[in-house]
Automatic annotation (TrEMBL):
The species this protein was found in: Stutzerimonas degradans
Domain Histidine kinase, first and last residues per copy: 596-791
Pfam families, A to Z: HATPase_c, HisKA_3, PAS_3, PAS_4, SBP_bac_3
Catalytic activities: ATP + protein L-histidine = ADP + protein N-phospho-L-histidine
Key words of the record: 4Fe-4S, Cytoplasm, Iron, Iron-sulfur, Kinase, Membrane, Metal-binding, Signal, Transferase, Transmembrane, Transmembrane helix, Two-component regulatory system
SUPFAM superfamilies, sorted: ATPase domain of HSP90 chaperone/DNA topoisomerase II/histidine kinase, Periplasmic binding protein-like II, PYP-like sensor domain (PAS domain)
Annotated protein name in UniProt: Oxygen sensor histidine kinase NreB
Residues spanning the signal sequence: 1-22
Length: 805
């Protein structure tokens, strides 16, 4: 009872300075404290803030002593819980297992879980670098190639990324790891808390490092309490404010300040060393003459000793490396004595045979290979010792520790080491290899069966190097059905597929094959071959190239019999040629008929209309003055005859424009002006000045193409300008009609919707030329027709020269 009263009195004295402005809250806190005398404290382990002393079996550190003194002031009892990191501490707090946690940073995430006290400690974050390097580092002027190592991700890395975007930060698992990255030259500087570096700097490992600057973002440590207990947070704030400054400074001096280095040892060492050097110097002076005499000998012995030491170290390193390679080899290795007992087994052999580490030692060989009894073993030992069947691979059944058998590949090698003799056994499990071999054989049989049933000849060409010779590696048995020769016959030297090619097609066959081989591309050829009966057959050869891992090139292909298809194709091509010739003949007949009708209409009907006009004029002269009504009627008849005259001219011009007789260039100019008058669209015409050597049929054909193109422009293009060009390009005459209209997409043209374009294309093909159409939506259309020029006759050129002279 007395102790409780004393504790209440102490608490009252501690909280008295704040009673004036926080009386209601302190009364609630005191009432809460009377019922909460045991606190669960969680601490993140890490020197110098919290450590566990194994010898004393208790916690120590800055945070531990701070909380113990605060608990003594408040009269509470602490129950400590240790955690490896803050994440584990937060999980325990969420589960309601923690009341107080000292030494935490205030974070936005932590505010939803804790109530933080005022900061009780300000920890500087130092920038550590090479002791011999530059000092007073300015992070603003740091070169991008100089890297900074920091524990992260966390507040330090976020601060550097937000304030110094020019700096490249290497994240480390801990601050000690960040310092090691500086020592290993992976980073130029490291960010470390001041207390931690004060402790680590006492170690020899970190002696080459020194402080070169301050990060400028100190770490503020607080005491976190449960979110649902504001009274506990108020008590902690009061206790921190009332914590004696002298005791707090003593805690900092004890745990956070770097201890001074005890140089006593070093001074004694240097004093002893100096004395020893003095004695040695005196001895050297006394024995100077003898030293000069023995200098050469000593130096020689020293070099020999160093060489021996280096050789011994290299031998030991080589022995360790050899032993490591043997132990970790993927091939099972056993060393057997002459009595067939195992003296050494590596990890691969133990794992393969199902034995634990060391269980195979002194195991007899017949327990692993029951078929190898002592007599057979001694015979095997004798053969290996004499060198018979050395390195020969034996396939047999071995037995694992659980009694299961597996196929193994065994190689024996005799080994003599000093006076001892061993038989080294190399062991490999070939279960997968046998399974793969069986699958490969089955796959090859399936492939041969499929290739034999394919209605064609399957083959393979192989080439070892890009410049090497090509050989036929495989021909299917279907060759018997296709050409009457067996695969073995075609695989003979100087035979192959080339021996089947028709003599007239052999050059084309050889050229296509060489092109595919030189360029390393797929091979395709169509031509005639001869079967065994001498019958001509059409064949289609297609082969695709593949590169192998060993540098070989392989062409896998097939020879199809396309005789029936080729016959149909040739007949179809001949039919198309006949149809095109017929269409050309019909077009010529139609143009001739148009010209004949145009002449008949123009001449015959024009003469009749002329006579009729004369007759009406005679009637007008003789009788128009007698009757005004008759004169008016005669004037009306003359106007009708004039309109009929114009209609006759239009019909004759539509059938065959007379301007064509003046040449294609004049006809193109005339058609362009006529189109411009009829449509109101500007038409730019460009034609050559000299006469063109062009026949009547080609001139009419190009003129009809021009008419159809301009008609399409007027109907569909919605153009503002049209350009017509007639140019000579080599031995070709080019007619190009372009517009700036709406254009169209080639894929948008459905069947039957563009007979005009089809007609133009067929007309150009009948003339022996080509037609190209370039159009895109919104970018206009350009139609180009090219036809070959006719050679100028010599007689015409001579007569032209005579007339000009």
């Amino acid at each position: 009872m007395l102790a409780s009263t004393l504790r209440r009195l102490v608490l009252f004295v501690l909280l008295l300075p704040f009673a004036a402005h926080a009386a209601p809250q302190d009364e609630g806190a005191r009432a809460w404290l009377d019922g909460q005398r045991e606190w669960r404290v969680g601490v993140v382990m890490g020197a110098p803030y919290a450590e566990y002393d194994q010898r004393q079996r208790r916690l120590s550190g800055f945070h531990v002593q701070l909380m113990e003194q605060i608990a003594a002031q408040l009269g509470v009892r602490l129950h400590w819980r240790r955690f490896d990191d803050e994440a584990a501490l937060e999980n325990a707090a969420r589960d309601g297992l923690i009341d107080v946690a000292p030494g935490l940073r205030q974070t936005p995430v932590g505010l939803r879980l804790w109530r933080y006290s005022d900061p009780f400690l300000r920890i500087a974050r130092l920038l550590v670098g090479d002791r011999d390097g530059p000092r007073a580092i300015d992070l603003e002027l740091l070169h991008p190639s100089e890297l900074i190592a920091a524990e992260g991700p966390g507040s330090v890395t976020e601060f550097l990324a937000a304030n110094y975007p020019n700096i490249t930060v290497l994240t480390a698992a801990s601050q000690a790891d960040a310092l090691r990255q500086v020592l290993e030259a992976k980073a130029s500087y490291a960010v470390v808390d001041e207390p931690l570096f004060g402790r680590l700097s006492q170690q020899i490992e970190y002696a080459p490092l020194a402080v070169v600057g301050d990060l400028g973002s100190p770490q503020l440590l607080r005491i976190a309490s449960r979110r649902d207990s504001p009274a506990l947070a108020a008590l902690l704030d009061s206790a921190i404010r009332e914590f004696p400054a002298r005791e707090f400074a003593q805690l900092q001096e004890q745990w956070l300040k770097p201890r001074s280095i005890d140089l006593g040892r070093e001074l004694g060492y240097w004093r002893s060393l100096s004395l020893l050097l003095g004695v040695l110097l005196l001895i050297c002076l006394l024995m100077f003459g003898w030293q000069r005499h023995q200098h050469g000998l000593l130096e020689t012995r020293l070099k020999a000793a160093r060489r021996d030491i280096e050789l011994r170290e290299a031998a030991e390193e080589s022995q360790r490396l050899t032993q490591f390679c043997l132990d970790h080899s993927t091939v099972g290795i056993l060393w057997l004595n002459w009595d067939s007992r195992v003296r050494y087994a590596n990890q691969a052999a133990e794992s393969l045979l199902g034995y634990a580490r060391g269980e195979l030692l002194d195991c007899p060989l017949d327990a692993l290979d029951p078929a190898l009894q002592m007599d057979a073993w001694l015979e095997r030992w004798r053969a290996a010792r004499t060198g018979e069947n050395d390195r020969e691979v034996h396939e047999c059944e071995w037995q694992r520790a659980d009694g299961q058998r597996f196929p193994a590949a065994i190689t024996y090698s005799f080994l003599r080491f000093g006076s001892r003799e061993y038989l080294v056994v190399f062991l490999a499990d070939i279960t997968e290899r046998r399974r793969a071999s069986a699958q490969l054989q089955e796959s090859e049989a399936r492939l041969k069966a499929m290739a034999g049933n394919v209605p064609g000849l399957v083959f393979r060409l192989e080439r070892e190097t890009p410049q090497g010779a090509v050989r036929i590696a495989y021909i299917s048995e279907a060759s018997q059905r296709l050409v009457g020769y067996s695969a073995e016959r075609l695989l003979e030297p100087e035979r192959g597929i080339r021996s089947l090619v028709h003599a007239d097609d052999e050059a084309d066959y050889w050229a296509s094959q060489q092109l595919a081989l030189e360029q390393g591309k797929d091979w395709r050829w169509q031509g005639r071959i001869l079967n065994r009966d001498g019958e001509v057959r059409w064949a289609d050869i297609r082969a695709s190239v593949r590169g192998q891992a060993d540098g070989r090139q392989v062409w896998d292909g097939i020879v199809w019999d396309i005789t029936d298809n080729k016959r149909i194709e040739l007949e179809l091509a001949a039919s198309r040629v006949q149809l095109r010739e017929l269409a050309a003949h019909l077009e010529t007949v139609r143009e001739e008929e148009k010209a004949h009708i145009a002449r008949e209409v123009h001449d015959e009907l024009g003469q009749v209309l002329t006579v009729l006009k004369l007759e009406i004029s005679m009637c007008e002269l003789g009788f128009a003055g007698l009757d005004p009504a008759l004169a008016q009627r005669l004037q009306s008849m003359k106007r009708l005859i004039a309109q009929l005259f114009q209609r006759v001219r239009d019909v004759a011009t539509a059938l065959r424009p007379p301007i064509l007789d003046a040449g294609l260039a004049s006809a193109v100019e005339w058609q362009g002006r006529r189109f411009e008058e009829r449509s109101g669209v500007a038409c730019l015409v460009e034609v050559p000045e000299c006469p063109l050597p062009l026949g009547n049929a080609k001139a009419i054909g190009l003129f009809r193409i021009l008419q159809e193109s301009l008609t399409n422009v007027m109907r569909h293009a919605q153009a503002q300008t049209v350009s017509v060009q007639l140019t000579v390009e080599g031995d070709m005459l080019c007619l190009r009609v372009g517009d700036d209209g709406c254009g169209f997409a080639e894929t948008a043209r459905g069947p039957g919707s563009s007979f005009g374009l089809v007609g133009m294309r067929e007309r150009v093909q009948m003339l022996g030329g080509q037609l190209s159409i370039d159009s895109q939506p919104g970018r206009g259309t350009t139609i180009t027709a090219r036809v070959p020029l006719d050679p100028a006759p010599l007689s015409t050129a001579a007569s032209t020269g005579a007339l000009s002279s």
